[in-house]
Amino acid sequence: MNLFIRCLRIILMARLGTKRAFTEDFTSHFMVGLHDLGWRDHLPNYRFLSFMELGAFHFFHGARLALSGKYNSRMIAAQEVIYLQPIRPFQKIEMTTRLIGWDEKYLYFQHDFRVNEKLKAVGLVKEICLKGGKKVSPQELLGQEEKRSPVIDSWLANHQQVRDSF
Asked: Which one, of 140, 43, 54, lies nearest residue 92 by Cα?
């Protein structure tokens, strides 16, 4: 239920604010509550993925892409989180979401998790937008040609090595 409330808050704040460029950073703030904890005394793996999804909502609503009619659903193709230090109960998280690039099919996001300006974790997400079950290219969605960063290239190379090993 708390995740639903967080999602509504992010969407409302993004929709009530001014339209933002998709090239901007989208920053969200959260407090780690007891309901966020798993069996350990810190933020568990699955909750980072939930926060990353909230960051995507912030991006799509803040850039006014969510209700543009250009797509009607999104699907995550890959996710990775690099945990640097644990985040404890009642700590305030600042999560920055940025679109770090796109290719002919996917959008690539980076989510930085900070507590007191110290980087605690980094998440990467590869995501596709769909309309009627068919892909919507990032070029159609954003109106710009492909843009890829070295982070994306190395991440995709690693994915290819994993696939090749099977």
From this structure: 43
